[in-house]
């Protein structure tokens, strides 16, 4: 049986941490849940997932460096790096522990950056930069965006032929900037119709990410959740305003 994407990332993390001689150090990773104010501040608009309480940011801290992961299952946790590498990633809670820990450790080692979610006007500033980046590198193309991010929809919809797919039933069927939000049943058609996939890093935690690593179709991940994993796996990521 082939290893899952997350298991591959877990093995790569173990190799790095073993080489850095930190696996057997007495180091603990503590993940905590950020309040909305801590996580995102006061962005423009009131329809960001964090503001609506659908997801939370789990934050891990390692030697003063922090890493985060979006998740819908959250709670405090403390363990060693060895345990993180050996943990069975069988639900969103465990996957969020691993991903936030990975981001914190790789940030501390100087192997990844932009692991802390942008705040306040950050999303509104990032989205137009993202749209410009795509236009400069890909031209006026068909985009399927995986994950509801209102600032990006606002920036992308005037420039590209855009489809948006989301898992949240409250979003599915709603209209944002003239774009009807589609559900998971429409994913395959939306993917096949696109020239480029723009995918939330949260797919790493909910383990749907393999659906969007499509052969011969470029994918750009966005957000902080996927930061270290993207660096380890060689995936393209855009996250202009995070820390």
Explained architecture:
This protein is α/β, with parallel strands linked by helices. The chain has helices at residues 5-19, 36-40, 81-86, 92-108, 122-138, 150-156, 187-193, 227-233, and strands spanning 29-33, 56-62, 65-71, 77-79, 142-146, 161-165, 175-176, 179-182, 196-200, 219-222, 236-238. Strands 7-8-6-5-9-10-11 form a 7-stranded mixed beta sheet. A 4-stranded antiparallel beta sheet has the order 3-2-1-4. α5 crosses α6 (150-156). It is elongated, with a radius of gyration of 17 Å. 40% of the residues are buried.
Characterize this entry briefly.
This protein has helices at residues 5-19, 36-40, 81-86, 92-108, 122-138, 150-156, 187-193, 227-233; strands at 29-33, 56-62, 65-71, 77-79, 142-146, 161-165, 175-176, 179-182, 196-200, 219-222, 236-238. With 243 residues, the protein is an alpha/beta fold. Strand 7 (175-176) and strand 8 (179-182) form a beta hairpin.
- Mean pLDDT level: 85
Principal-axes shape call:
elongated
* Number of β-strand runs: 11
Strand content: 15-25%
How much is the radius of gyration in Å? 17 Å
How many strands, what sense, and barrel or not for the largest sheet? Answer: 7 strands, mixed
Instruction: Output the strand order for the largest sheet.
Output: 7-8-6-5-9-10-11
Q: Total number of helical segments?
A: 8
Helix content: 25-40%
């Amino acid at each position: 049986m082939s290893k899952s994407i997350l298991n591959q990332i877990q093995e790569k993390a173990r190799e790095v941490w073993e080489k850095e001689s930190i696996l057997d150090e007495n180091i603990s990773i503590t993940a905590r849940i950020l309040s909305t104010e801590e996580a995102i501040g006061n962005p423009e608009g009131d329809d960001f997932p964090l503001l609506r309480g659908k997801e939370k940011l789990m934050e891990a801290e390692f030697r003063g460096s922090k890493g985060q992961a979006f998740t819908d299952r959250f709670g405090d946790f403390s363990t060693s790096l060895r345990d993180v590498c050996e943990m069975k990633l069988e639900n969103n809670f465990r996957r969020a522990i691993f991903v936030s820990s990975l981001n914190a450790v790789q940030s501390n080692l100087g192997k990844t950056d932009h692991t802390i979610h942008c705040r306040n006007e950050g999303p509104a500033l990032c989205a137009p930069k993202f749209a410009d980046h795509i236009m400069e590198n890909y031209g006026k193309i068909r985009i399927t965006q995986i994950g509801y991010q209102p600032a990006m929809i606002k920036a992308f919809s005037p420039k590209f032929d855009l489809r948006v797919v989301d898992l949240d039933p409250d979003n599915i069927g709603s209209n944002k900037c003239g774009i009807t939000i589609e559900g998971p049943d429409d994913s395959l058609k939306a993917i096949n119709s696109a020239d480029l996939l723009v995918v939330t890093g949260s797919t790493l935690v909910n383990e749907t990410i393999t659906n969007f690593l499509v052969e011969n179709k470029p994918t750009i991940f966005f957000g902080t959740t996927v930061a270290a994993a993207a660096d380890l796996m060689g995936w393209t990521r855009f996250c202009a305003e995070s820390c």
